[in-house]
Hints:
By secondary structure, this protein is mainly α. It has 20 helices and 6 strands. The chain is elongated, with a radius of gyration of 31 Å.
Amino acid sequence: xxxxxxxxxxxxALTPLDGRxxxxxxxxxxxxxxxxxxxxxxxVEVEWVIHLLDHGAIPGLRSLTEDERALLRAIPEDFGAxxxxxxxxxxxxxxHDVKAVEYYIKRRLAGTSLEPLAxxxxxxxxxEDVNNLSYALMxxxxxxxxxxxxxxxxxxxxxxxxxxxxxxxxxxxxHGQPATPTxxxxxxxxxxxxxxxxxxxIAADEYLGKINGATGTYAAHAISVPGTDWEEVSRTxxxxxxxxxxxxxxxxxxxxxxxxxxxxxxxxGRILHNLATxxxxxxxxxxxxxxxxxxxxxxxxxxxxxxxPIRFENAEANxxxxxxxxxxxxxxxxxxxxxxDLTDSTTQRNxxxxxxxxxxxxxxxxxxxxxxxxDVEAMAxxxxxxxxxxxxxxxxxxxxxxxxxxxxxxxxxxRLKDLTRGQRVTGEGMRxxxxxxxxxxxxxxxxxxxxxxxxxxxxxxxxxxxTDEDRS
Length: 472
């Protein structure tokens, strides 16, 4: 009888992020795992105790000593394997994860000077007060400390490649057809510029939080201690956590900030997806060569000659998965029936996979880009085989001369169309055509000196629009 993998120890991973790709996404475990959620809940709970006592929110209670503050803050700092197991055991009894956090903290206050104040833990709070702040801290940490630095890394890689290849001419393709030449560096720079803009946008995104009770009215607060300005206590606490205060909510924080952030992250992912497919195409055209050592040991199980662009294909697929999950998160989280339903609870537990697949894609893109060599000769040969792309240059000069009053410049577009559309033109053929136009000497010399490789306009200098931020 076949083994039942579900019974094996250590547990077999169900998803590739926790199995095959664990190493690439491991940094997210500190931010977006279930253990990270509970650690953040502990942080919120103990900081709430400290905040209430330090701000005299409840009259008649003493303030904390420095040692007591240190004791409280050590509880989340010491939350490791033993603490995770203990919390899980408590949760099996309470069948409520946030209540288990409350009891976990109270156990650590037993026998200390804070034991008489233990009932302050979770006072005036509904579970969502703790959860919304915890998720905001988790997502903020994951984006700012892990995901955004990874995105900035690939931006820096692209900016460096763009500058290195700023002068390398390349045949463009619009609609898949030969078009006005560009430079490889300028095209790579477009992606660096697009992603840099998204990175700045994401870095400026807000992370909102609230702590205002069961239905957002401060009812328990006001009835217990009517003399305290609970809105001010709430605002200063949320801002103390490094978050933006949301003053008007139902039982839940509305999650609109999450939808906004996830839309931005998904958009950045779609630009990265565009990069992956374009680089894949350039590889297939021979513009890039892949170094085998950077891509992997075996290209094909049956065709020994192949070096497959697996890094870019992996990135493409993972960005599609990430984008789909981020879209679902954004669509689901902005809706909650009346003052509260629980759909957001299970939905938010999938933030980790959504960001994880994106982080995995970025890692593969960076490895793929690091393993590329530019084939300048292949690009030069492609340019030399497509002299018809100079048709734009010639007809544009003719149009300019025509509107300036020069004779013999009639129907420039149509004349170039007859020469170039649907057929290849050699350099000799293009020069013969130019010589037969009767152009003024200056314009004639300028066009005769032109080749597909030199018809790149401002391409190289446009990279000055990449900022210093793109280098880091």
